[in-house]
Specification:
The structure is a homodimer of 316-residue chains.
Chain A: E1 11-15, H1 19-34, E2 42-47, H2 50-58, E3 64-67, H3 71-78, E4 83-86, H4 93-100, E5 109-112, H5 118-128, E6 135-136, E7 138-140, E8 161-164, H6 172-184, E9 188-191, H7 194-220, H8 225-231, H9 234-239, H10 247-256, H11 258-280, H12 284-307
Parallel strand pairs in A: 1-2, 1-4, 2-3, 4-5, 5-6, 8-9
Antiparallel strand pairs in A: 7-8
Amino acid sequence: MTAVAVFSFDKLVIFGVGLIGGSLARALREYGEHGDAAGLRQVIGVGRSSASSKRAVELGVIDGAAALQDDDALRDALSGADFVLLAAPVAQTQPLLERIAPYLDAGTIVTDAGSTKSDVVEAARAALGTRIAQFVPGHPIAGREASGVDAALPDLYVNRNVVLCPLPENAPAAVERVAAMWRATGGCVREMTCEQHDRVLASVSHLPHVLSFALVEQILASPDAALKFSFAAGGFRDFTRIAASSPEMWRDICVANRAALLDELDAYTAVLARLRSAIEAGDGATLEAVFARSREARSEWQERRVAGATPGDVST
Amino acid sequence: MTAVAVFSFDKLVIFGVGLIGGSLARALREYGEHGDAAGLRQVIGVGRSSASSKRAVELGVIDGAAALQDDDALRDALSGADFVLLAAPVAQTQPLLERIAPYLDAGTIVTDAGSTKSDVVEAARAALGTRIAQFVPGHPIAGREASGVDAALPDLYVNRNVVLCPLPENAPAAVERVAAMWRATGGCVREMTCEQHDRVLASVSHLPHVLSFALVEQILASPDAALKFSFAAGGFRDFTRIAASSPEMWRDICVANRAALLDELDAYTAVLARLRSAIEAGDGATLEAVFARSREARSEWQERRVAGATPGDVST
């Protein structure tokens, strides 16, 4: 036994084998081949669509599939599982956990990959009741524009932040086992509270998505939309790249994280109002000061990112 | 003589030999080597900094340089010039043209590369008075993150939109000569009014820059800025790429194009307010509808861009 757990377990069950779940499976399989651990004996995928499960088996991402609707298959899948990963849209957390609960072994650890955490924990408490200690909330901050199991990559999580938000009820050993699993994928595991997570992600991810969708919506609603789009160039392209994201996923995130998102949106609107006043007044000095400050911060961020510096201590 | 002028002239004088002016010079030199026309005999750069002029000569971008402050050198530079290009920040248009006016031959055509047009035309009218017919306003919509003459590329304008905003005073032949020059660089020349240009660019370029600067400013002003930056990922990176742009240039653009920019900013703020209400109400249907509409429009835009389709008729 060592102080830091090494990833080693036999059976992983993934609910929703798409980009996120599929990439975890592929990463852990590679780790099993090259790492010190015995690795993974079996990965089972559970989903609603038999076509996508079949594809995941074909690609060798999972060893077998179970239909969520099938009681016996679900019981077999969950029997003796070391880990369960929920990788479905966050709004499905509660119904999924209610479906899983009757078949969940006492020794199984459940974790998730949802983009919001306070609402997921609330859903998990409602579904699992006194067994909430088995649920360790998580969020790997990684993605691609492509989705689905065909887009899954074994190195999707390398050098990416993976946030864990341990609950007071979680045993430290359970949290450490989840951390070891993500470290085995190359991820950089960081702990914070659900509230911290939701505030931080609202700021640097959820708000920019809303702002980007809003720009395209505003242009669309204008009388000369076609002319405007025909002159849009590189700045527009980058600013709106995230407006090509999944409407369903972002609808769920906005609703799930609404409190933190509204705080950030209101703070942003206040900054915009200040800039509006400066533009109207022709106050070049204020505009230049804000733009220069932003450019410097953005450039420093980019340099740290390129340098691959270890992210700072979250407790500060 | 043909109906469409072929690019052919002897002497070009560029005020501000950086990325934009330098790329025009390099493009026209290549055209002279490979095209049907006799090409360019001489390119003279005029600027405040002798270091950057020297660098432009070293790189072979210009044949000679004149200091803006030197009356004799400026007279020599402008004597017999076919074209003058202003490629300095838009706020310098009026002082530059006032400096040029005493030495300007009657046959010289002056054009510019400014990101705003109504204010540039106002400045040109103030500086040139009854000689305004010699000034054909233009704006090549191209750029790179890097700036300065070292970043100049001969193919910067290939397949890029170049807007000309002819004045009632301009002779059609003068406009056509400017158009021929930009076509020789590979640009796609399109005519519109100054008001159309400023409204369109406010929407698809100036507003996104303000929104991007504002996001970085808002995060910076929050108590947990360092934590937030440390979790910023790919979405933030793309959304804020344009926040690394020149503060001076964007200060000038915001002030110069304030009327059109405020219109777009107010329309945008109204869209944000609608989205805020939907988020607060947990109105997933409205959010999903807006996001889906935006995604579709953004995807269509991207497909047209990749296909390299000819931009639509600006008169519609």
